[in-house]
Amino acid sequence: MLSTILQFLFSGLTVGAIYALVALGFTLIYNASHVINFAQGEFVMIGGMATVYLVDAGAPIWVAAPAAILLAVAVGVALERLAIAPARDASVVALIVITIGASIFLRGVAQVVWDRNFHTLAPFSGDEPIRVMGASFLPQSLWVLGVSLLAVLALAWFFGRTVLGKAVLATANNRLAAQLVGIETRAVMTLCFALSAFLGAMGGVLVTPITLTSYDAGVMLGLKGFCAAILGGMGSGVGAIVGGLVLGVAEAMGAGFVSSAYKDALAFVLILLVLCFRPSGLVGARASERV
Amino acid sequence: MLRGKSLLLAGMALLLGAAAAVAQDKPIKLGAVLATQGGPAFLGDPEAKVLRLYVEKINGAGGVLGRKIDLVLYETNGAAADAANFAKRLIAQDNVDFIIGGSTTGETMAMAPEVERAGVPFVSLGGASVIVEPVKKWIFKVPQTDRTAVEKVYIDIKQRAMSKIGLIAGSGGFDKSCTDNARALAKTHNLTIAADETHGAADSDMTPQLTKIKNANVDAVLYCGFGAASVVVTKNFAQLGLKSAFYHNHGSASAQWIKGSGKAAEGVRLPAEPVLVAKLLPDRDKQKAPGIAFAEAYKAKYNEDPSTFAGYAYDALLLMQDAIKRAGTTDKAKVRDALESTKNLVGVTGIFTMSAKDHNGVDAKSFRMVEVKNGTWRLLY
What we know:
The complex is a heterodimer of chains A (about 290) and B (about 375).
Chain A: H1 2-33, H2 40-56, H3 61-84, H4 92-113, E1 130-132, E2 135-137, H5 139-161, H6 163-173, H7 175-180, H8 185-211, H9 217-232, H10 237-258, H11 263-277
Antiparallel strand pairs in A: 1-2
Helix pairs in contact in A: 1-5, 1-6, 1-8, 1-9, 1-10, 2-3, 2-4, 2-8, 2-9, 3-8, 5-6, 5-8, 6-8, 9-10, 10-11
Chain B: H1 2-25, E1 28-35, H2 41-60, E2 69-76, H3 80-92, E3 98-101, H4 105-118, E4 122-124, E5 139-141, H5 146-159, E6 164-169, H6 173-188, E7 192-198, H7 207-215, E8 220-224, H8 228-239, E9 245-248, H9 255-261, E10 269-272, H10 288-302, H11 308-327, H12 332-340, E11 345-346, E12 351-352, E13 368-373, E14 376-379
Helix pairs in contact in B: 2-11, 3-4, 5-6, 8-9, 11-12
């Protein structure tokens, strides 16, 4: 019984780490603009698909992965410059709708440029499962979990300790005031899209050996990552990690102990409960408007 | 008076003959609706390629009954409503003599009422058993049903003296239909289903479901599903170190699945269409030569190995040619009757024998049981 519970837990943490990594990308752009970037899943997809294609073309993974991430960053910057920046004065809701459009566009382009098949990458540290007390997990899960933790530490340092990070937070809080104190708010937005594309694409490379990738892989990852971000508290890096892991473990336990047919429903019920009783998420600070 | 009458008759005969000759020269109009875009593109894309390639080949060799085939192909993204509209257009506007298509079960079922109302011989490339059960007068289909695949698997399980099985399936239409058949057939084959699990379409880890199956101590596990999830299930199965025999359905019969699963695919068994293992078939097997010829022609043109789905389109075209030749005309009712009396027609998917009760014409015997060995297929029987 213990080994069974442990296996459910490992499964939950594996999936949860993937959700967490995607959720972190949402956090960044949200922090800078209060925009929820629904093309975040597509950054993940671009990271995975581009790496797969470069590896198939004969490039070693340590060349393919950075190149793919650079491509995603370029797409992120282009998205901000060409679609978000021109609509700068539009409402946040309008900007969110623009990102939805961008996600559909990127999926369409990926279908044409690459293909409609699913692809995988070789795991970084082999596929020999690590066994602990009768349960097992793949070394790749450790990669995903480890990089998620590193990313959240780096983000905490960036927002808490650097002038640039504080500039991002200031821009989010009040763009006009930020401009008045000399912050280049346009550059801040571009930077945030570049960074979150970087995070997303890196996640895409890391999770592809586990989840596989295809032109439409971003839809599911984006949705689950969004749920994780909401669950943990939108805008909080730690919240993204907590939200992702809680969501993953809830799904796995639901599938294991209740019914695999209803596991997604169980996860969504959990989110509804959290939103009812703690609207700012598990970790997020309670929102307060100063008047 | 008598002379006048016979002259008139002779004249009429002459006119009729001329009209008949004109009709003979008119091309045979073949309509097709295939999902070459969107989700089911992996089905429709190779099917369209085959139709284009072989219509060209047939016309180059003089056509059917001395008449060329004129292909009218409509491409969809798998949406049922589009398929129904295109079916209407093929019937009302293009006046086609024969329809191939509906890459998926959903498209086929949407086209069915139009085709039945107008009365056009129709061969579907969709998978599920609902297409031909109950039998519809004008509708036939090429692929073996999901039930046939399950039956083949159960026969193999019984041969290995196993009795306790576990099921795991996705949540799509095919997955559900396959699981329903697996549950129903388990009773008739005296198998006990000790675990019955499902996963979401885009799930990335199925170890909880497989852990439950592992704890149920089953002899064999059957997977009903296809696509990326089939690779994840295979990898998780190996990760947990399950000792049971592992069966997939024919949806996994692709080079892509083997490549994606890597080592984890070793030892997995599945029922596959003969075209997939044509080269491995024994020489006495009637399907060996056509299978190899088809694979070579396809590869020569498109520089890739044909999938099983490509084979479906080839066989649909074969069924059409055979029926029109035997009917000696493109009269729709006569072609339909000829189609229904198809006998021992050797295709690449199976050997077809249709009847008034069976508009599919292939059974579990047409599948070959294969096992993955050293990263490729090994033919068992």
